[in-house]
Batch of 2 targets.
Target 1
Amino acid sequence: MSVPKILELYRGTIEQGLEEALRDPSTGGAPSPLYPILRYHVGLCDEDGKRVKALGKMLRPSLLLFTAHELGGEIDRALPAAIGLELVHNFSLIHDDIQDQDEIRRGRPTVWKLIGVAQAINAGDLMYSLAIDNALHAGADAAAAILAAATAMIEGQGLDLAFEERWVNTRSYIDMIDKKTGALIRCAFRTAGITSGAREETLATLSSLGEELGRAFQIRDDLLGVWGNGDVTGKPKGSDIKRKKKSFPVSLAMQQADEGGRSILERVYAQERISDGDVERVIDLMDSLNVKESVGEAVEQHLRTAREHLDRLPISEEGREMMNELIAYLARREK
Amino acid sequence: MSVPKILELYRGTIEQGLEEALRDPSTGGAPSPLYPILRYHVGLCDEDGKRVKALGKMLRPSLLLFTAHELGGEIDRALPAAIGLELVHNFSLIHDDIQDQDEIRRGRPTVWKLIGVAQAINAGDLMYSLAIDNALHAGADAAAAILAAATAMIEGQGLDLAFEERWVNTRSYIDMIDKKTGALIRCAFRTAGITSGAREETLATLSSLGEELGRAFQIRDDLLGVWGNGDVTGKPKGSDIKRKKKSFPVSLAMQQADEGGRSILERVYAQERISDGDVERVIDLMDSLNVKESVGEAVEQHLRTAREHLDRLPISEEGREMMNELIAYLARREK
C-alpha cells in the first residue's frame, strides 16, 4: 500500500523543524546528554549520532500543515505548532515505552533500553518542555490548544493503565481513547484552524473530524493488536491480550459474550501472566462472536462520519481528495 | 529554629491555589485516577483523600509572592506563576523519587511506591502539564520564564544522573546545580519582577540574587547529604555517598586529595555498591581535608553575595530584613 500524499508533502519541512527544535542550545558548560537521545528517538540519527532517514509516520504534523495550507493559512505560522505537536507525541512514546517495558520501537532499541529508565524519564520530560516551547511560538491560542491536548493525552494514558486492573464497557473505552489518542489528532486539525484564523464554525467541524479520525485510528490499532500480522506490525499476534490491555475488541467481547464466555475472559485476565494457549482461547472466543468484523465495522463507521465532516470543510476539491486518500489508508493500514 | 516569616505569610494563599490547580476538571466519563495522587503528593490530603495540613516548605512560591508584593506587584497577578512554579518543583520530585528509588518523602510513601512506576510517570507528566497551564495564566512572559526554568531544571537533572558515571570538577558541579536547583529559585525572583512590571536592571539583580541563593541552598543540601543528622533529614548519614552522587563535598575532596586519597575515592566509587565501611572511609578522608569547613564556607560565600544583590533591590527595609532572616535560615537549616 503506497503512502498517502499528505504524509509526504511536508516531510522535509517537518524533519528540518525537528532538527532545529532538538538542537542543544547550551553554549558553555557540560553538554546535556539528553539532546542526542532525543534526536535518536525521533529518528533523525542513529545511536552514534549519524544522520539517517527519519522514521515514523509524522501523521499529526502532516495533518496540521496540510489542513492549515488548505484553509489558507501560512505554513511558517503553523510550523511551530506542528513541531510542538509532534514533540508531544514523541515525549509520550518515550514514557510509554518505559511503562510498557517495550524494548523495540520503529525497529530500533527504545530510549530506556539505551540509557536506562531514570535518564529516559528525563529525556521524555525534556521533549515535553521543548514541545511546549515550540507551541508557544505559534501564539497563545495555539499553545493553549496543544497544552490542553497534551494534558488530555496524559489523562487518557492514566485511564488506559488503570483499565488494566478492571473491566470497562465500550463507552468508557471510547472516553479513554478520545483522550489518549484522539486529543492530539483533534488538536492537529483544530490548531490548523487556529493558526489560519478559521471561523468558530470551521473550528468545530475540524474538531469533530479529528475526533472521528482519532477513534478510527485507535480502533484500527486495537484490531492490529489482536489480529495483526506480527511480521508487519512488529508485535506478535495477540500482543494486546498478552499485556491485558482493555482494548476495544476485548471490551466488545466482554459485552457480547454469554455467561460461559465472560467467565473465560474473567479467568484469563485475572492471571498474573497470560499464556500463549490462553491468548488463543481468547481469540477463539472473539472469533465465535464475530468481534473482528464488529471492530472493523466500528472503524468504518467512524471514517464515514469523518467523511461527512470533511465534506463541510471549506477546502479545495483536490485537498478533499487527498484527505479521502488518507482516510482510506488509515482504514486499511497493517501497521 | 523557627520558620522564617516569608515561608508563613502566603501559605494559606498557596495552599488554596494548589487546591484549585489540582482539581479534576472532567465532568463526564471515567474520573482520572491521577488527580487524587497529585493532591496527596503536594500534601493536601492523605492516601484516603482526607484533608491534612499541607507539607513541604513551599519555598519557591513563597519567595515569588513575597518579592512580587515588595516590588509593588499584585498578588493575584503573581499567584498563577507561583502555583505554576510550585507544580514544576513537585513534578520533578515525583520523577526524582522514581529515578532515585526513594520510598519516603516528607515522612510518607512516595508516589511510585503507592501507585507503581508506570502510573507515577503519568502523575509527574500531568503535574507538569498543570504547571504550564497555570504559568500561562500569568501571561506570556512569565510563562516563558517558567518554561525555560523547568527546561533548565530537567537538563540539570540529566547532568546530575550522568555525573554518577564520572568525576566532575567543582565548576561542572556548579554548572549542574545552577540548572538543577538554581533555575527554579532564580525563576521565582525573576518572575516576581516580571509580574510586577519591574525594570530590566531590577530583573537582572533578581536573577543574580536567585542564582546565589540557589547555589547556597543546594550546597547546604549537599553538606546535609554527607554530614546531616539522619533523624532530622530523614536520610542516613552519608546517603549521598552511598548513592554515588557527585555532590559538592566529594568533588571538592577529589580536587584537594593527594594521590593516595584520590585512589581511595576512585576505588570506592568504582564499586557497584558502596558499603557502610567505605562510606565511613570517604567521610574520614573528607574530614582530614577539612572538606566540611570548606563546604560551609562556600555556602556562606554565596549567601554574602546574595545579600549584596539584596541590598540593591528596590524593596522596603522591613522586606529586606525578612529576606535576611530567610537567608540566615537557609544557611543553618538542618533538613
Target 2
Amino acid sequence: MRRSRRRVRAVRCLRDLGEFELIARIARAAGRPPPRSGVILGIGDDAALLRPRAGEDVAISADTYVENVHFRWRSDSPRSVGRRALVANLSDLAAMGARPLGFTLALAAPAALPVRRADALVAGMLHEARAHGCPLVGGNVTRARETHLAITAIGCVVRGRALRRGTARPGDRLLVTGTLGGAALERARAERAGGRVRHVATPRLSAGACLARIPAVSACIDISDGFDADLRQLLGEQLHAVVDERRLPQAAGFERACARLGLDARRLVRAGGEDYELLFTLRPSGPRTALLARRLGLRLTEVGRVVRGAPTGRTAGGWRHF
Amino acid sequence: MRRSRRRVRAVRCLRDLGEFELIARIARAAGRPPPRSGVILGIGDDAALLRPRAGEDVAISADTYVENVHFRWRSDSPRSVGRRALVANLSDLAAMGARPLGFTLALAAPAALPVRRADALVAGMLHEARAHGCPLVGGNVTRARETHLAITAIGCVVRGRALRRGTARPGDRLLVTGTLGGAALERARAERAGGRVRHVATPRLSAGACLARIPAVSACIDISDGFDADLRQLLGEQLHAVVDERRLPQAAGFERACARLGLDARRLVRAGGEDYELLFTLRPSGPRTALLARRLGLRLTEVGRVVRGAPTGRTAGGWRHF
C-alpha cells in the first residue's frame, strides 16, 4: 500500500514523466486504430501512413489551441480543452465535405504541467476522435512555457467534390445549420458563475459529407470565428450577402438567457465563435430548405442571399488574432 | 519621402499587421504551388487538398520548433530557424522513403514579434520548401507568449514500400549516410564565437526514396536526436547493435576542430542532434556498401551489426524533452 502511494506521488508532472513515457502514455490511451480505418501505420514511427480510397483527394487542416489565448486552466476543464481543440479541426474537415482519416497532435507543455491535466486533455481529444472516427496517428511532444495543442487533421474527399470558399455566385441562397451564439453564451455563463466551460460543439461531419454530394451547394465554411467574420471568408471580396438578421437561428430561450446575463444576444449570434455550424451557399435551383434539412438531419435556416459587390466593412466583431 | 518612412515605421510587429494581413503576407511569399505538384488547393480555405498518385499511401509527420527550447533569437538567425524547422519534418519523410507533397505551418508568436523576424522565419522555411518540392499548403497563425513553429509534412510513398522502425532482424548490417556531429559542432562554434547558428543540414529525401525501392533495406530512421538515441528508436527493445565506434563517420578535420574548442568529439558524434543523416539496416544479402553509396550519391558507412537482446541502457546523452 505504501509502495503504491509513493509511486502515485512520484509521478506528478510532465518533468517526472519524461518525453518517452509521455508519448507512450498517449499511445496507450489512443490504443490501436480501428480496423478498416485507413490507418496503415500509427503512432511510433517517423511518420504515420494513411490510405485514402481510390479517387479521393486528401484534405489537410491545421489549427492550434493556445493557453491564455484559446483557453484558460482557470475557466476551462482540461477535458473540454482537448475536445474543443480536436473539434475545431474536425469542423474544418466537415466544411470541406471530407471524411476524417486521422490526426496528429503536436503537444507543447510546461514541464510543470500536472500529469492528470495532460491525461485529461488527451482523454478529451480521444473522446472526440472516437466519436468521429478520426484516430490519433502521430505527433510530437515538447516542453514550452505555455500549453499549445497544434493539431493537424487529415481527411479524404472524392475528387472534385470538396466544398470550397469563394465559389458562391450572386443569387445563391445562404443557409446555416443548427443555431448560433450558443457556445459564446455558455462561455459567458460559466465565466459569470466562476465555473468551468464544459460546452463542446459537434463538428458537422456527416452534414458536410452530405452537402459535398449535392452539386447545387456552391460554397461552404464552418463558423469558428463568428457568423459575420466567417461569412466574409466564405464570400470573399467581390460578393456580400443580404442577411435577414431576424432569421439568424437561435436556440429556444436564448434571448432570455442573454438578457438575464446582461449580454447582447444579437452580438453573440453574429460574432460568437466556436459554434461550428456550417454556413453554405446553394444555387437558387437547389433543393428546398425543408427537404435539405431532412437529408442533413439538422435544423437548417435560409438566412439571406448572395449579391454582387464588396461588403461594407462593418463586422460585429469576430475573433481576430494579434 | 516622409510618407513612406511613416509607413515603414507603422508596420513593425505582428500586432501592427493583424492576423489576416499576416496570413496574406505568408501566402504571398509562398506563391502558387508549382504545376503538377499534387496540390489541388493551397492556402486560404478550411483545408488544403492534395492528390497522391494511384497506389500511394500518405505519410504524415508533425514536429514543433519552440523558442528557448529548439532555438534562441540570441544565437539563431530567424532564417535558419525557419529552414531547420522544415528540414526536421522533411527528414522524417526521408526516413520513411516518402516524397514530399506539401506542409502546413501552425505559427504561434508574440504580438510583439518584429515583422522582419517573422518574414525571415517564413523565408527560411520557403527556401527549403522550394529546394525540396514541398510547398506550404495551409496552416494557421495565433498569438502566444513564445514563438512556436508547428509543422506537419505530408508525403507519399508507394504502398508497402515505406521504411519503418522496429523491422530490423539480428544479423542485419547497420549503415549511416554522411557524417555525424557536424551540426552539434557548428552550434558549439557559433555559441563560443557569440555568432548565430547558420548551419542547416540537408534532409536525405532522394536517398530515402532510393532506399525505399531496395527490398533488402529492413528499417530506417533519421538522426535528429543523436546516433545513440535514434539507434534505440530504430531497433526497439528486443534488439541492439554492436557498433564499431571508430567507424562512426566524421567530417575531415572534425576531431581537430573539437579539440580546439575543448569539445568531446566522441560525444558529439554519438549524441549530437540535427545531423539528419539516415540510419538504416540492411539484410546481410543486400548490396555492398560501396555500390549502395554510389546509388545514393552519398558517403555511406557500415558501422555495425544488429544482434538479439535488449540494449544495455547506457546512452551518450541524446536529446530528451521534459
